[in-house]
């Protein structure tokens, strides 16, 4: 895509809540002062969201005017079909295909969002690939997908226990204490965090991204 990461995010955000969630996959981990907060909601009031992070601390996030919320719901490996556009976080295995640690299936209307391969911060050495599934194979050893993006190709294996999710509508009412969230925001010099988008897990799902 010709858009720079920040302008691409702006374009995506203009399309609404689900598109704002999709922007999480388009943002690079090292972009400026961008930060991802992952964890469970401690409290939500007005424009303030307090999250108990996966590292154990609390983060207070100020939500910007016009902020959006998108939902994440459970999917399965059987839902992944050739032609689908997916975001796959994976780790290199040393030999053979990379191993998936999480998979996001994009709605058809969002095909092409953040296409490409980039470092990801889910785990050390992990990478995120947003790409089209050109081949999906099931075998006795699990599942394997071949992804194509920007003229390149990558094969990734998906173990049975790999979290697989897709996007769904959500509202501010879904931001309840205990709900899992991932928030992409900006961290100021004074340490304060602000954000214009929140992704919340639905029906007890912990967002794996």
List the helices and strands and how they pair.
Blueprint: H1 5-13, H2 17-26, E1 34-45, E2 48-53, E3 58-74, E4 85-91, E5 98-105, E6 116-119, E7 127-139, E8 142-149, E9 152-158, E10 164-168, E11 180-187, E12 193-201
Parallel strand pairs: 3-12, 5-9, 5-10
Antiparallel strand pairs: 1-2, 1-11, 2-3, 3-10, 4-5, 4-7, 6-7, 7-8, 8-9, 11-12
Helix pairs in contact: 1-2
Count of individual domains? 2
Number of strands: 12
Distance between the termini: 22 Å
The coarse silhouette is elongated
Tell me the β content: over 45%
Describe the structure.
There is one protein chain. The chain has 209 residues and is mainly beta. The protein folds into two domains: 5-72 and 169-201, OB fold (Dihydrolipoamide Acetyltransferase, E2P); 74-165, no CATH class. Helices cover 9% and strands 50% of the residues. The protein contains two helices and twelve strands. Strands 1, 2, 3, 4, 5, 6, 7, 8, 9, 10, 11 and 12 form a twelve-stranded mixed β-sheet that branches. Helix 1 packs antiparallel against helix 2 (17-26). The longest helix is centred in the N-terminal third of the chain and has 10 residues, at 17-26. The chain is elongated, with a radius of gyration of 17 Å. It starts with a helix and ends in an 8-residue tail after the last strand. Residues 1-17 have low confidence and may be disordered.
């Amino acid at each position: 895509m010709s858009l720079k990461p920040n302008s691409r995010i702006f374009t995506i955000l203009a399309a609404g809540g689900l598109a704002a969630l999709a922007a999480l996959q388009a943002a690079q981990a090292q972009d400026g002062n961008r930060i991802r907060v992952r964890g469970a909601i401690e409290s939500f009031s007005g424009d303030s969201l307090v999250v108990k992070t996966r590292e154990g601390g609390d983060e207070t996030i100020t939500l910007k005017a016009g902020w959006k919320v998108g939902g994440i719901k459970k999917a399965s490996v059987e839902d992944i079909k050739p032609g689908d556009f997916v975001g796959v976080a994976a780790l290199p295995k040393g030999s053979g295909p990379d191993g998936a640690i999480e998979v996001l299936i994009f709605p058809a209307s969002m095909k092409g969002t953040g296409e490409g391969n980039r470092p990801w911060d889910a785990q050390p050495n992990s990478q995120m690939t947003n790409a089209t599934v050109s081949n999906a194979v099931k075998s006795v050893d699990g599942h394997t997908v071949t992804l194509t993006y920007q003229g390149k190709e990558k094969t990734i294996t998906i173990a049975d226990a790999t979290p697989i999710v897709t996007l769904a509508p959500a509202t501010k009412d879904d931001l309840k204490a205990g709900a899992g969230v991932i928030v992409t925001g900006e961290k100021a010099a004074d340490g304060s965090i602000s954000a214009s988008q929140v992704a919340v897990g639905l029906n007890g799902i912990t967002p794996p991204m």
